[in-house]
């Protein structure tokens, strides 16, 4: 358990900065954040939005004068990752929205990340430049070619200091491999390959080869009328490069081993919780669909998120989860209206903390939930502009289902379903979290003494 985590569960998360946009009437759909991801050290935080932009934030370095400032994130680089396209063969518009971002471990001074929209994955290199060469022989300082007859002496080019510039350049474009919308990308632990998953297929790519991928899962039936489920999320094991999992809209998880066959249609393990017949309803199949699947950092557990719960599965036990956490059970009575306004199809993500002892996921009304696996305590916190003053303490929120409402509680009937936290991220080693609430990014950290 991370030292000082006890305070985190006792309402002392601090809001350090709200760094993306404001909730104004003039906010466009393109400003809505669609993914959030820390890099492997936690020094950088990337967000993608529906407008195809990637914004990278860098953590402030600690200073002796202001040690508490360590933890603030400032804009480091912004670039347009994807543009809207049109598939003329299918008469389909391809959105520029960034579905997922995944960082690669840093090998040198530059950073590398993968970003994807519905169809195309791109590998970006983000690098710094603080020197420029001067004193060319064949060019002048403006870059124009010099008259060869005027060159009378040989000059040795030198590097001169310049203002720091952060450049983002696309190094690889992996396209034309998916018929359906990409919902997941995952970097393998060998760091030579990665996979991309859409509704019916999962492809394995080599980072050096852009025009060819290997299809490792294909669940498309010969007759599409027989289609009963789709792939909703997929991820590689953090340590074993041959193992990966994928979840389905039927609430099942399949663990596959690439050593058994080239096409992993036959799973090595199949995780499914038997349904309680007494709880069966019209909405059962919809709310059991898994929207996110994540391996723990240790690789021993899998966490899944469906509409109402977060479940933790042990890789050695397939018949039921070892832990089930109710995220917003008070919405069971509201499923009919949530179906009518399409909220029941929202895809919430879930994340582990660095030590796998706490899990976090989002809810409505800009609430997000944390569950301590050791103490079984949980807390509901709110990401809102009202309580986002720097160094302000977040107070736990409670939802009242019926009867008499206390002063600090909020009624389930007054929840705002247009404000939802679908995307969250947790620093790999510290109690720093990033929460995307519509077009705002909130960064909170544990109490600093």
Automatic annotation (TrEMBL):
Q: Which residues form the signal peptide?
A: none
Q: Where are the transmembrane segments?
A: none
Record-level GO cellular component terms: protein phosphatase type 2A complex
Q: Which keywords does UniProt give here?
A: Repeat, WD repeat
Instruction: Spell out the molecular function terms from Gene Ontology.
Output: protein phosphatase regulator activity
Q: State the superkingdom.
A: Eukaryota
Q: Which family does it belong to?
A: Belongs to the phosphatase 2A regulatory subunit B family.
Q: What is this protein called?
A: Serine/threonine-protein phosphatase 2A 55 kDa regulatory subunit B
Please name the source species: Lepidothrix coronata (blue-crowned manakin)
């Amino acid at each position: 358990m991370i030292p000082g985590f006890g305070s985190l569960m006792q309402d002392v998360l601090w809001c350090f900065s709200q760094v993306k946009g404001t909730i104004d009437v003039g906010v466009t759909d393109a400003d809505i954040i669609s993914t959030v991801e820390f890099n492997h050290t936690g020094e950088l935080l990337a967000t993608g939005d529906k407008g195809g932009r990637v914004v990278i934030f860098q953590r402030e370095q600690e200073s002796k004068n202001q040690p508490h400032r360590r933890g603030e994130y400032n804009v480091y680089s912004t670039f347009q990752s994807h543009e809207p396209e049109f598939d003329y063969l299918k008469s389909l518009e391809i959105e520029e929205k960034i579905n997922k971002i995944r960082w690669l471990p840093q090998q040198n001074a530059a950073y590398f990340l993968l970003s994807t929209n519905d169809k195309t994955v791109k590998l970006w290199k983000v690098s710094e430049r603080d020197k420029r060469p001067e004193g060319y022989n064949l060019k002048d300082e403006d870059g124009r070619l010099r008259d060869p007859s005027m060159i009378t002496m040989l000059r040795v080019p030198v590097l001169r200091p310049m203002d720091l510039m952060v450049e983002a350049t696309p190094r690889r474009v992996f396209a034309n491999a998916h018929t359906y919308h990409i919902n997941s990308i995952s970097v393998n632990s060998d760091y030579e390959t990665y996979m991309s998953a859409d509704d019916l297929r999962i492809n394995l790519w080599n980072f050096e080869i852009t025009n060819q991928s290997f299809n490792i899962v294909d669940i498309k039936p010969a007759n599409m009328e027989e289609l009963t489920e789709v792939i909703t999320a997929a991820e590689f094991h953090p340590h074993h490069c041959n193992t990966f999992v994928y979840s389905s809209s039927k609430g099942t998880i399949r663990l596959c081993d690439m050593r058994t066959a080239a096409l992993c249609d036959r799973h090595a393990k199949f995780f499914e919780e038997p349904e309680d017949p007494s709880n069966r309803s019209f909405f059962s199949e919809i709310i059991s669909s898994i929207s996110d699947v994540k391996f723990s950092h240790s690789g021993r557990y899998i966490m899944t998120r469906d509409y109402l719960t977060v479940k933790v599965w042990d890789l050695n036990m397939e018949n039921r989860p070892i832990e089930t956490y109710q995220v917003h059970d008070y919405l069971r009575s509201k499923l009919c209206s949530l179906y009518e306004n399409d909220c029941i199809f929202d895809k919430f993500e879930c994340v582990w903390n660095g030590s796998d002892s706490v899990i976090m996921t989002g809810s409505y009304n800009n609430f997000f939930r944390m569950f301590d696996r050791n103490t079984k305590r949980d807390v509901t916190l709110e990401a809102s502009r009202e309580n986002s003053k720097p160094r302000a303490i977040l107070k736990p929120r409670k939802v009242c289902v019926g009867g008499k409402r206390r002063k600090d509680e909020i009624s389930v009937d007054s929840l705002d379903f247009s404000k939802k936290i679908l995307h969250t991220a947790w620093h790999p080693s510290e109690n720093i979290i990033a929460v995307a609430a519509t077009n705002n990014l909130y960064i909170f950290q544990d109490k600093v003494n």
